[in-house]
Design a protein that fits this description.
The protein has 290 residues and is α+β, with helices and mostly antiparallel strands. The protein contains six helices and twelve strands. The chain has three domains: 37 residues, no CATH class; 110 residues, Copper binding periplasmic protein CusF (OB fold (Dihydrolipoamide Acetyltransferase, E2P)); 117 residues, OmpA-like domain (60s Ribosomal Protein L30, Chain: A, 2-Layer Sandwich), CATH 3.30.1330. The protein has a five-stranded mixed beta barrel with strand order 4-5-6-8-7. A four-stranded mixed beta sheet has the order 9-12-10-11. Strands 1-2-3 form a three-stranded antiparallel beta sheet, with no helix packed on it. A hairpin with a 2-residue loop joins strand 4 and strand 5. The radius of gyration is 25 Å and the shape is elongated.
Length: 290
């Protein structure tokens, strides 16, 4: 066996040839295998790179500088995000009236359209387009998507249905209840506020509740995701068991970890505001006159 390695910039090419020596080698077929490994940082200058395919779908996972986009047909495409990637949104609903948005606006659950260039056998997003209404929806249901690049189909289908459902509602009010660091226990004040929110919703014709849990920036991403979901579940259980809210008037709860903070996580006061569960009162547009 003969091995040849050749370095070429960020690409490493490995060629392996197998066979025999002598006359048998001349008659036997030679098998060549080529493995391409891409190393180094995603380039910040995309000028001159060959165009790649346009990709449309929902962001179903993020890892470092990569994001997975799942299309309507269930096919998943992994795209790199560079510092040169242009991220554009339409103004209005969230006041996103500027052309370029920060990359942290790329939330799980967000429908996007992406123009790409080819790089080392992969793709880099040259331009990402989103709508401010979609950004709001994605921020509400971020925890409904799976983090990771495997077993995405079921989560994506569930997410797609919830995207359609939430877009059919008007937000009538929000009550926030707060938690101690790393805890999901309800304070007496939180219990009082939750039953008051249930009474407000009950006085609103055809109202449903959407419960979303959050954390501050303390702890790992996985820990915070689990904690935010636990807080949301605790609130849902209390609303149903102690405030008389009917389960059929409750949308599926979710956890958003430390995403969408209300205040600055660099201060104790800000962290205290971010350790919360939001109870949102929603009414279907079809019965709300809009």
């Amino acid at each position: 066996m003969k091995t040849m390695t050749k370095g070429l910039g960020a690409l490493t090419l490995l060629a392996v040839a197998t066979g025999s020596t002598g006359l048998a080698a001349q008659q036997a077929p030679v098998v060549n295998e080529y493995v391409t490994t891409v190393t180094g940082e995603v380039p910040s200058d995309l000028t001159g790179m060959p165009a790649g395919p346009d990709v449309e779908g929902i962001i179903t996972a993020k890892s470092g500088g990569k994001m997975q986009i799942t299309g309507n047909d269930g096919a998943a495409t992994v795209v790199n995000v560079s510092s040169a990637t242009k991220i554009k949104g339409s103004g209005g609903f969230l006041g996103l009236n500027r052309d370029k948005l920060a990359a942290d606006a790329l939330l799980n659950g967000l429908p996007i359209a992406v123009e790409t260039v080819q790089w080392g056998g992969g793709l880099i997003a040259s331009e990402i387009k989103l709508k401010s209404k979609d950004l709001r929806t994605a921020s509400m249901i971020r925890g409904g998507t799976a983090q990771g690049f495997a077993e995405q189909t079921a989560a994506t289908e569930a997410l797609r249905g919830r995207l359609g459902d939430i877009d059919k509602y008007n937000l009538k009010g929000t009550t926030n209840v707060n938690f101690d660091t790393g805890r999901a226990d309800l304070s007496e004040q939180a219990k009082t506020d939750l039953c008051a929110a249930a009474q407000q919703a009950d006085a609103t014709d055809n109202a449903l509740l959407l419960v979303i849990g959050y954390t501050d920036s303390t702890g790992s991403e996985d820990f915070n995701q689990t904690l935010s979901e636990k807080r949301a579940s605790k609130v849902v259980n209390f609303l149903q068991q102690h405030c008389g809210w009917k389960p059929y008037r409750m949308l599926t709860p979710t956890g958003m970890a430390e995403a969408d903070p209300m205040a600055d996580n660099s201060t104790d006061y800000g962290k205290a505001q971010n350790r919360r569960v939001a109870v949102n009162i929603l009414v279907s547009k079809s019965v709300d006159g809009l």
